[in-house]
Specification:
By secondary structure, the chain is mainly α. It has 2 helices and no strands.
Length: 104
């Protein structure tokens, strides 16, 4: 009977050791999975940030092109609307010089 009790105790001890090893392995697997998950999230965050920067850069470039285009249209419209005679240009320049230099 004593042998049977000792075998039961030994079996329980072995089972406890196996359970402890399984728990330790589960903890390692969980830790690895969490690390991989964090790495994936960090990589995705970096990729999203890079893509967002590209989108902003493209939008800024497009806005600059649009600004230049509209500016050239405005310049052309102004130049078409304002036609100054050479004599009037000369008088206007002289008037500006007198005003700036405070000449009479």
């Amino acid at each position: 009977m004593r042998d049977v009790i000792q075998k039961i105790i030994a079996t329980e001890s072995d089972a406890k050791s196996l359970i402890d090893e399984a728990k330790a392995e589960a903890d390692r697997i969980l830790s690895d999975a969490q690390k991989k998950g964090q790495d994936i999230i960090e990589r995705a965050r970096k990729d999203a940030l890079t893509e967002a920067e590209k989108i902003v850069e493209t939008a800024v470039e497009e806005a600059e092109r649009e600004k230049q285009y509209r500016l050239s249209l405005a310049i052309a419209a102004i130049e078409n609307q304002i036609k100054l005679e050479p004599e009037f240009k000369k008088k206007a320049v002289e008037w500006v010089i007198r005003c700036v230099c405070r000449l009479k």
